[in-house]
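Forwarding the complex inputs:
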Amino acid sequence: GAVVSQHPSRVICKSGTSVKIECRSLDFQATTMFWYRQFPKKSLMLMATSNEGSKATYEQGVEKDKFLINHASLTLSTLTVTSAHPEDSSFYICSALRLALSYEQYFGPGTRLTVT
Amino acid sequence: TQLLEQSPQFLSIQEGENLTVYCNSSSVFSSLQWYRQEPGEGPVLLVTVVTGGEVKKLKRLTFQFGDARKDSSLHITAAQPGDTGLYLCAGYRYTDKLIFGTGTRLQVFP
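Prediction (whole assembly, two chains):
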């Protein structure tokens, strides 16, 4: 099966600093990747769609200057949380779209961000 | 409002019992998927259903897509503690964006 990795798996940072999360598709090329946020005991909420070589598309209510997304290659997308605040603490999950006979998204293991 | 509503939200049962989780919407989906997620991990795809009325079986799990492609159900027979987790339905509405349901948290006690 397709494998998607995320790094780091856990990160703790201080308020006001920035943190970068990487999402890699390890055995397939992904022109499209997605970033989700998940609050405790809740479902996944789509934040943005990351397209290789173009600007990301953000969902309503998601601050694009706060959550910077870069998709510079067919196997790597990064999410940078800028000037982090405690309310940004969450579980961030990426997925990579593998186009076959139907849309198949493969999810990364997630990154737990804690802002102190 | 959430486009995909799951019920129940929480389910706590004894090993060996049967259960059904529902995923409902007023909108039509081109396909629908079910995932299971364990704490601190990403969701893992269980099944994809595409055709209205389709039924798929995965060992003790039976998935059904409604005839009108607006709803789906997941039935687990003889639940085991290893089935414990967050079950999420998610669907595509003719785009590449996956819309997730509200989730059902299942706990199976030995």
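The CA atoms of residues 33 and 48 of chain B lie 4 Å apart.
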